[in-house]
Amino acid sequence: MRVGAGYHHPGAAPARGRNVAPVVALLPHRRHGPAASYSRAYGCDCRFENSNAAIRLPASSLQCPLPDHDPMLLDMARAYLVQKFGEPRLMLSDRLRALVRRFIGVGDIGQIAIADALSIHPRTLQRRLRNEGQNFEALVDQVRRERLLALLEHPEPPRLSQVALMLGYSQQAAMTRSCRRWFGCSPTELRRRRVA
């Protein structure tokens, strides 16, 4: 994660109740003194003559609470971003794929259940997918295909009966039919090919 270097000053993190140590400071200028002085000031290694100024923080810092969180400032920042860049819009098909990936093998990935999770009517789901040039069954099929490949490439792949359950199939035979349709061979043969 990167934040502008102007945001950081020594002791800012502890003063805000956080205990986040920067990973590296990227500075746009040449070094004007001993590197150790910069490292002490920023509390991390410093790199000079970069195209922009930034402080890299560990990804875990995103989980830190913000004790001085200001909801009004957040609303102002969001409004500015929407005005400047427009409303962020994920395609419905992308949201659907993400839900299927999350629920596959552990929950219902039927059209009604997914529509319910998206808080829309199943017919609305069908219509909006059609407007994107997609259809529900093809998207679920695509997620299953990707997941099958990932499971078969795992160093210690599960048994095929387990793979079928993990893909949301009630029977291994249904998975085998899908595998033949996707790759022209059985899961066992596909596994052999991928390992070789």
Automatic annotation (TrEMBL):
- The answer to whether keyword Transcription applies is yes
* Occurrences of domain HTH araC/xylS-type (ranges): 94-193
**Alphabetical list of Pfam families matching this protein:** HTH_18 (PF12833)
SMART domains in the record: HTH_ARAC
**Record keywords, A-Z:** DNA-binding, Transcription, Transcription regulation
Family annotation (SUPFAM superfamilies) = Homeodomain-like (SSF46689)
Specify whether Kinase is a keyword of the entry. Answer: no
Read off the PANTHER family from this record: HTH-TYPE TRANSCRIPTIONAL REGULATOR GADX (PTHR47894:SF4)
State the name under which the record lists this protein.
AraC family transcriptional regulator
Origin species, per record, is: Burkholderia stabilis
